[in-house]
Each structure stands twice: as C-alpha cells, then as structure tokens.
Amino acid sequence: MLVLNKFKYVVLCGCIFASVSAGFAADVKIKTETKPNAETKAIIETKTTTDKQPQQKDAIQSTAQNVCAACHGADGNSAITLNPKLAGQHPEYLLKQLTQFKTGVRVNAVMNGIAATLTTEEMQGLSKLYAEQTLTLGKAKKNGVGSLGESIYRGGIAATQVPACASCHGANGAGIPKQFPRLSGQHADYTYEQLKKFRTEERANAPMMTQIASKMTEVQMQAVADYMQGLK
Ligand code: HEC
Ligand code: HEC
C-alpha cells in the first residue's frame, strides 16, 4: 500500500512537471515567433531622416542606379519579368521586404546578399525613392473582362473558400497601406512565382498569403496573375 502511494506521488509529480514544462515550451515558442515581427515593426515605425540630409539622398540615388537598377530598372520598372517592379509600391511594404531579406525571414539568395549590405537608413531611403517613382502599367495577355482571372480577383473562389483578392488589395489593385501591397501592373511571371512560393512556404513571411495560395491551382494562379498585370 505504501509503495503504491509513493508510486502515485511520483506519477503525479511527473505529470505536473510535464505540464509545467510543456507550458513553458509553448511560451518560449510564441516569444520567438513574434520577435521578428516586433523588430520589423520597430524599424518600419522609425521616422525616415533622408529629407534633411541631401548628401545621404545622393548616396541613396547612386546605390539605386549602381546596384538596384540592373535588375529593377532605372525607374523601378524592371524589364525582366521575374524581377518585381518596385515603382509606386507602398514604402512601408518595401521596407518590410528589405528588412526581412536582411534578417533572412524572406529567402532569396540574390536579395538576401544585397540587403545584408544595406543599413536601416539606406533601406528607408531606397523604399521612399521607389515609392515615389511612377509605375508603368501593363496589359493582360488573356485575362481581361469576364475572364477566370477577373472572377478570382473580384469574387474569390467559392469552392475552396479563397477570399476575393480585391478585399485586401483593393478594387483597382492599388493595395491598402500599410499592410496590403499594390499588385496592379506587376509582372505576371513574378506574381505567379510568388504565389507558388507562398504555397510551398519558400516565402514564409505572410501567413495570410500562404493560406490563400495553398487553396489555389496553378491554372488559377496563372489566370489571376495575368489579370493583375493589366489591372489599373
Ligand atoms: C541581381 C538582380 C537584383 C538586384 C541587383 C536587386 N534585386 Fe531586388 N529583387 C530581385 C529579385 C529576383 C526579387 C524577387 C525575389 C523573390 O522571388 O522573392 C527581388 C525583390 C525585391 C524586393 C521585393 C519586392 C516585392 O514586391 O516584394 C525589393 C523591395 C527589392 N528587391 C529591392 C531591391 C533594392 C532596393 C535593390 C538595390 C539595393 C535590389 N533590389 C537589387 C533581384 C534583384
Ligand atoms: C486577407 C487579406 C489578403 C487577401 C484576401 C489576399 N492577400 Fe495577397 N497579400 C496580403 C498581405 C498581407 C500581403 C503582404 C505580404 C508581406 O508583407 O510580405 C500580400 C501579398 C501578396 C503578394 C506579394 C506581392 C509582392 O509584391 O511580392 C501577392 C502576389 C498577392 N498578395 C496576391 C494575392 C492574390 C492573387 C489574392 C487573391 C487570390 C490575394 N493576394 C488575396 C493579404 C491578402
């Protein structure tokens, strides 16, 4: 009887210890997951100082011309369709991406290497510079009025419960600062690649988009990407 009681005690203690340590582990996990977001937020909220520093502005312009222009175009409208257009994009979104390339939260070998060399001030200046450039609009190849692409963008996909893209990215694709980026006029090839990367979590910096892309077929992704290229 005594032995049994002791055994019960050990089991009870074991259980308490196990649940306390499980709770502790969950706490730690939550903390590590929210950390990059909090850091990113702090950086985004830091005011840009480039206005009062003409010298720094020149330096930003020369970085844009000497480093970024080769891939993103001299005016932020890239010619290569797998490289995103940056012109007219919201500065907060651009800064979030650069910060996440630098910290490795968003993975892309080329951009991780480039962002690693940039300071917070440079990333702020470059984001502001590209946001002020004029976006060159594009044309859809096949997905105009009445197309599959249009119906996904405006109405979502009822069968798989994909919400309308317009509900977050705006009726004309201009996005809603600061959280939802502009999509209109973006190269369809780039958009299609990103949707695939969201689905596989190769791009894992936007849980909302991973959820959406995981419910889409490649045909649907291509159609909506083509529609967005012509959206204005
Ligand atoms: C060698 C080509 C190359 C150069 C140089 C380059 N980029 Fe990029 N950039 C890319 C590619 C490719 C992507 C898309 C990455 C992906 O698929 O996730 C990208 C993505 C980005 C994005 C994310 C845009 C979005 O819509 O999410 C930003 C912001 C960006 N680059 C800024 C810059 C800046 C600023 C510079 C200069 C300091 C620069 N890039 C230089 C190729 C380049
Ligand atoms: C619930 C809100 C929401 C809906 C609905 C939504 N998105 Fe997004 N989307 C976002 C957010 C937030 C981001 C920004 C991700 C980040 O900060 O990196 C984003 C980013 C994107 C990007 C990346 C843009 C770039 O320049 O790299 C693409 C492409 C995109 N969304 C396409 C779509 C499409 C297509 C649909 C409809 C099928 C859609 N989104 C519906 C919230 C949404």
User: What would CATH call the class of the domain at 148-229?
Assistant: Mainly Alpha
Helix content: 55-70%
Named CATH architecture of the domain at 148-229? Orthogonal Bundle
Fraction of residues in β-strands: under 5%
- The DSSP helix count reads 10
Helix/strand-derived class?
A: mainly alpha
Unreliable stretches covering 5 or more consecutive residues: 1-36, 42-50
Question: Can you walk me through this structure?
Answer:
- It is a single chain.
- The chain is mainly alpha-helical.
- Among the domains are: 79 residues, Cytochrome Bc1 Complex, Chain D, domain 2 (Orthogonal Bundle); 82 residues, Cytochrome Bc1 Complex, Chain D, domain 2.
- It contains 10 helices and no strands.
- The protein starts with a helix and ends with a helix.
- The N terminus is likely disordered.
- The structure holds heme C (2 copies).
